[in-house]
Design brief:
Layout lengths: L2 H18 L5 H16 L2 H32 L3 H17 L3 H19 L1 H45 L8 H25 L5 H22 L6 H26 L3 H22 L6 H18 L13 H18 L9 H20 L14 H21 L2 H8 L2 H12 L6 H19 L1
Helix pairs in contact: 1-2, 1-6, 2-3, 2-6, 3-6, 4-5, 5-6, 6-17, 7-14, 7-15, 7-16, 8-13, 8-14, 9-10, 9-12, 9-13, 10-11, 10-12, 10-15, 11-15, 11-17
Length: about 450
């Protein structure tokens, strides 16, 4: 670590403390340190770190106002009361340094609510405001920690690159970022596909998605040529079968009303299979990475699981979940065997084969799969996002361990849940919220490893 980086690290620590004790603009200090390091370091990795850190801080800034604000509205606390609390915190800081922030906030909120609703109802409103303020600080702290960890991973990745002559130029951090992009794209694709499937057959949406994605990738091959071998095409065939059958068994389980079992089992299976393949082929991640992987597995389960609305047997849907997990895990493991010299033609073949597999299973189940309604064309958007996700994952495997890239990509249910919460206003259950937090911890550990 250089003297500049040491100074910036101290500023980052001060920034994190500033989030907990809102005296200093903590997030601004963290992001400012990353920005200064990027200007001094230069290069693609440094700028990638800055972009990701900025996204974390920006997302945290938005969420820390939206989520607590919504809870305050549900508790019946008006915006004017919040402003009185902020004014009280500002005044309290000058009366009693640091501690006066909290005392002044409580006094301001209580005084405003007592004036508005009377003594008996003022204290519950004050407690609701305190919980919302604490949640806001926690959200900002998590975002700042993620940004700081991204920066630490960036300069550690640079140091490893300087100390070891890696001929292929593989970057652990870049692989993690691409895998995160894949997870986000998969999550958004599932969200779009799920919304579209509410009015038309999910099988037709899935087929349109695969055909649309394959078409876009075929067009990409005209611009980015490659030289796939027979072995590469064989692996893409295996990946396509895994993709298609994984989607088919997932849909069969979900259509039978067993989402609470099928979704988490398939999500965990999609991570476990490539991890096993990676270990068997000689991959040995660092201790921090292993810890992140172990945390990611229960995180995927909790995020993907829907609370049961009635009596549910684990056996109901377990087979579909296991088969779907094996399919998606096979997709990830097979794609990792395709080198970058092959280009994107194997990716297009993968999606064509997946489409054929979906039609075969839908026909066997006597489910309508032929797109007959214009709404099914919404699957094209889902297919484009799915193709982007698979392409990002394919590139990520060229620069990182399969055990790392597959686990990060398997966190895609977290993005679907967050989109459903913010766009559709769906309720995030307690288990899902815990899972989202574990997802953030898992990504942080894997990136820092």
């Amino acid at each position: 670590m250089s003297p500049l980086e040491l100074c910036l690290a101290l500023v980052v620590v001060v920034g994190l403390v500033g989030v907990l004790v809102p005296v200093l603009p903590g997030s601004v200090l963290v992001l400012g340190s990353v920005f200064v390091w990027t200007l001094a370091e230069g290069g693609a990795t440094a700028w990638t770190v800055l972009v990701v850190a900025t996204l974390f801080i920006a997302a945290g800034t938005v969420v820390k106002y939206v989520v607590p604000g919504r809870r305050l509205q549900q508790a019946g606390v008006p915006t004017s009361t919040q402003w009185w609390g902020a004014l009280g915190a500002f005044a309290g800081f000058f009366v009693v340094p640091v501690v006066g922030l909290f005392l002044g906030f409580v006094a301001g909120v209580y005084a405003a609510e007592r004036q508005r609703v009377g003594h008996d109802s003022a204290w519950p409103s004050t407690l609701a405001a305190l919980r919302a303020a604490g949640l806001s600080i926690l959200i900002e702290l998590v975002a700042a920690i993620l940004a700081a960890t991204t920066w630490v991973g960036g300069w550690r990745s640079r140091d490893r690159a300087r100390c070891t002559a890696v001929a292929s130029g593989r970057s652990h951090l870049m692989a993690v970022l691409l895998s995160l992009l894949a997870a986000a794209s998969y999550g958004l694709a599932d969200f779009v596909g799920g919304v579209t499937s509410r009015r038309v057959s999910p099988w037709s949406v899935a087929l349109v998605a695969q055909v649309g994605g394959a078409t876009l990738v075929f067009l990409l091959t005209l611009v980015v040529p490659g030289s796939p071998t027979r072995a590469d095409l064989a692996w893409s065939l295996v990946a396509g079968l895994g993709n298609g059958f994984g989607t088919a068994f997932l849909y069969r389980g979900l259509s039978s009303g067993r989402m609470g079992v099928v979704a988490p089992v398939s999500g965990v299976g999609a991570a476990v299979v490539p991890v096993a393949v990676g270990v068997l082929t000689g991959e040995r991640p660092d201790t921090l990475v292993w810890l992140g992987i172990l945390i990611a597995l229960p995180a995927i389960w909790l995020v993907a699981r829907e609370p049961a609305t009635g009596p549910t047997r684990l056996g109901a849907g377990l087979l579909d979940g296991v088969l779907a997990g094996l399919g998606f895990g096979t997709l990830f493991a097979a794609l990792a065997q395709i080198p970058k010299e092959a280009g994107f033609l194997p990716l297009a073949l993968n999606q064509v084969v997946a489409g054929v597999a979906i039609v075969a299973v839908a026909t066997a189940l006597r489910s309508p799969w032929l797109p007959r309604e214009p709404r099914a064309l919404g699957g094209v958007v889902s297919g484009a996002l799915g193709a982007l996700a698979t392409g990002a994952f394919l590139v990520a495997t060229h620069g990182g361990y399969l055990t790392v890239t597959a686990v990060i990509a398997s966190l895609y249910p977290a993005f679907t849940v967050m989109l459903a919460a913010f766009v559709l206003r769906e309720h995030v259950h307690r288990a899902q919220a815990i899972g989202l937090g574990l997802c953030a911890v898992a990504v942080t550990l894997v990136a820092a490893g």
